[in-house]
Design goal:
heterodimer, A: alpha/beta, Rossmann fold, six-stranded mixed β-sheet, 16 helices, globular, B: alpha/beta, TIM Barrel, nine-stranded parallel β-sheet, 11 helices, about 40% helix, about 15% strand
């Protein structure tokens, strides 16, 4: 298989001027990452700074309501409130050891921006965060958190003013500042080596969850593992160690937006087509002429017209099942989990929870392990507007 | 020999720098675009570079992005570009080059695209988001139609990587003079000379300098190290201010 490919998907579709920093990163991934110094420091950071391992939680009330066994992998309990920090501390430490001073990042929901700001502050680096103007408004609390930790926020006014455009601008900035700057890409997408590198830092989710589930269930594996998919980093982290377990059904949940005909959504795996964007060949929301379509989801972290190439491959190979949940189903799950279990999930993670709720008839008696990728405090502003 | 190389070498023989103006297809509007092309041709362009619109042009600076997104909004697509060029085939003295991003070409179908290039009299293609590692399938599609994939190298391209691009390259080599996106820069870094010298050693086709070129005075320091100059943002800004292409080309002749 060609370098950086997952089946037919992946690759390095970026300007030649970005190849040197990508090759430099690839080399660091092969030399610095496996080194004892990196591994010792990173293992310690996972424990001391993030609070890993994150626990798994059985949901007694909701399990009874739905007629299934619902378990949550609690990435919302990580420092800064989501799985994103697994990746930013990993890439941050790698960049530091590569001799870079600046962590550059794009952010949609703001969670990756916050996690990058944490990493930069901890590692005594500078964080520069590109964020769509639309997202800056709808995720104001996260903007405040980033600023408090010393990050510079750059508002992106081009295109749809969301995640896709923030990535375009961040790539441009990286092109100009590659000497001093590491692009701390937020999801398991983009050009090689990012999909592999980000998975490497997120696979801890399923490494822990698989063992934790077996410890609690007499060595049995869950019947179904579920995660929401935007770019797909929490999902690839949640799936990775379950992929070889053939008895475990793997379900990725994309955002269907409002779900009304003619409206934008964020489900390229469900009804997109193969194409090239942001350095990768993957499934995209696009016109017949290859222009990228705007995406929409009530969950800003899922609001993206592409998806990580490994998910496209898992779907293509039949190993992963990719389904959609719409805005109102996700909001319903957000409320139900808050009310029945006292856990406020991020709107992104609510899509994964909603899968269990909406499919309870098919899932009777099954054990369902959902990745609760982040906490929902950041979304109260959005909910206030809707409810 | 590829027509782009022939035209640039013609300029070299006359002791001139080859001129490669860039305009997004459909700029400043559908009708005026073809008139601008004719003017650029008459004013002595060696190669005319035509931008194919894309919704997410990561390698373009603000001036080019804004101009090409407007063309996209106006409904400009590959079919329109090829139709217009086929109608005017043989009317341009300059060689024609298309520049854009992979996805629109990929959706159009690379084989169909290559055949349409030939039918429309297009001699070359630049794909901004496709490095050497991913370019085989496009090169294979273009070759039977006599269309060159123009290599793009820059200040951070090692001599080893330049060699990868030089192998089998035809037309000319596009040398990006700044580490950044397209657009005007007042001063050009001194590193350019050193890297241009390397490029001259590696490539046996003409070298065109681009990104940040506004005025011919900027080029005198690179005499002998380059054969042609690409200018886009400065030309777009000039046309946007209501002036003509021929006026812009005047100091370059």
């Amino acid at each position: 298989m060609k370098k950086g490919y997952f089946g037919d998907f992946g690759g390095q579709f970026i300007p030649e001027l970005l190849m040197p920093p990508l090759l430099e990163l690839e080399e660091a991934m092969e030399t610095i990452l496996p080194s004892e110094e990196f591994q010792t420091r990173f293992t310690n950071m996972l424990k001391e700074n993030i609070g890993r391992p994150s626990t798994i939680t059985y949901c007694p009330n909701l399990s009874k309501d739905l007629g299934l066994d619902l378990w949550l992998k609690r990435e919302d309990l990580n420092h800064s409130g989501a799985h994103k920090i697994n990746n930013t501390l990993g890439q941050g430490l790698l960049a530091k050891m590569m001799g870079k001073d600046v962590l550059l990042a794009e952010t949609g929901a703001g969670m990756h921006g916050v996690a990058t700001a944490v990493a930069a502050a901890m590692l005594d680096m500078k964080a520069v965060i590109y964020m769509g103007a639309t997202d800056i408004v709808r995720q104001a609390p996260n903007v405040g958190r980033m600023k408090l930790m010393g990050a510079e926020i750059v508002s992106v006014e081009s295109g749809t003013k969301t995640l896709k455009d923030a990535i375009n601008e961040a790539l441009r900035r990286w092109l100009a500042d590659q000497e001093t700057t590491h692009y701390c890409f937020g999801t398991a997408a983009g050009p090689h080596p990012f999909p592999t590198l980000v998975r490497e830092f997120q696979q801890v989710i399923s490494k822990e969850a698989r063992q934790q589930f077996m410890d609690r269930n007499d060595g049995d594996l869950p019947d179904v593992v579920v995660a929401c998919v935007g770019g797909g980093s929490n999902a690839i982290g949640m799936f990775h160690h379950f992929v070889p377990d053939e008895s475990v059904k793997i379900v990725g949940v994309e955002a269907a937006g409002t779900g009304e005909p003619g409206c934008d959504d964020s489900a390229p795996l469900d009804h997109g087509s193969e194409g090239v964007l942001h350095g990768m060949k993957t499934k995209l929301l696009q016109t017949d002429e290859g222009q990228i379509l705007p995406s929409h989801s009530v969950a800003p972290g899922l609001d993206y017209p592409g998806v990580g190439p490994e998910h496209a491959h898992l779907q293509d190979s039949g190993r992963g099942d990719y389904v959609t949940i719409n805005d109102s189903q996700a909001i319903n799950a957000f409320k139900i989990l808050s009310r029945r279990e006292g856990i406020i999930p991020a709107l992104e993670s609510s899509h994964a929870v909603a899968y269990a709720i909406e499919n309870k008839d098919k899932l009777q008696g099954k054990s369902v392990l959902v990745c609760l990728s982040g906490r929902g405090d950041k979304d109260l502003g959005i909910l206030d507007q809707i409810l | 020999m590829n027509p782009m190389q022939i035209k640039i070498e013609e300029a070299t023989k006359q002791g001139k720098v080859g001129l490669i103006p860039f305009l997004p297809a459909g700029f400043p509007n559908r009708e005026q675009f073809w008139k601008e092309l004719e003017e650029l041709d008459k004013a002595g362009a060696s190669v005319i570079e035509i931008g194919m619109p894309f919704s997410d042009p990561v390698a373009d600076g603000p001036v080019v992005e804004k101009a090409s997104l407007k063309c996209l909004d106006d409904g400009i697509n590959l079919a329109w570009i090829f139709e217009g060029l086929k109608k005017r085939k043989g009317q341009f003295s300059a060689a024609l080059l298309l520049m854009g991003y992979l996805n629109p070409v990929y959706q159009y179908g690379v084989d169909t695209f290559a055949a349409d290039c030939e039918a429309a009299g297009v001699s070359g293609l630049i794909i901004a988001d496709m490095p050497h590692e991913e370019s085989d399938f496009v090169k294979k599609a273009l070759a039977p139609h006599g269309v060159s994939l123009v290599p793009l190298v820059g200040l951070n391209t090692s001599k080893e990587r330049m060699k990868l691009y030089a192998d089998g390259a035809s037309g000319f080599c596009y040398f990006v003079s700044v580490l950044g996106t397209t657009g005007q820069r007042e001063s050009l870094p001194t590193l350019i000379k050193e890297k241009l010298t390397e490029a001259k050693e590696v490539f046996d086709i003409p070298i065109a300098l681009g990104f940040g070129i506004k005025h011919p005075d900027q080029l005198t320091q690179f005499e002998g190290l380059m054969d042609a100059a690409v200018f886009g943002s400065a030309l777009i800004t000039h046309i946007e201010s209501g002036k003509s292409s021929s006026e812009f080309m005047e100091p370059w002749k």
